[in-house]
Amino acid sequence: MLHPKKVGTLPVEGSDKTKQTNEIGMFIPLLENIDIRGKDITSDALLTQRKLASFVVGRGAHYHFTAKGNQATLNTDIALLFENRKEPDFVEITPPDHGRIETRRIWCSAALNEYLAPPRFALPLM
Description:
Elements: E1 8-11, E2 18-21, H1 23-31, E3 40-43, H2 50-58, E4 62-65, H3 72-82, E5 90-97, E6 100-106, H4 113-116
Parallel strand pairs: 3-4
Antiparallel strand pairs: 1-2, 5-6
């Protein structure tokens, strides 16, 4: 598993200088020298960016990005789509650990694919 640093340095094109950048700026440099074809790339909501999804798809990989409040319109559209869904497509119940039972429910749909345009986001609603 790769984990980008919160802050990194990248070279400035045409210069000997470097610039500081955050996780978004480190995503592509971190993955560009690794063969990711056929791999699943996951990220938190900060990296749910069309440019990053295009990079992953262009390299022949798949992605699972999270939609939250930082992508307000996308998050609202997904919530509206699943508003009246009855049963989830998948349910996992984890046995008690430290007195807690964890239940995960996942609803899946391709209904927003044409609306979102390529690269298609297939995002879990958190």
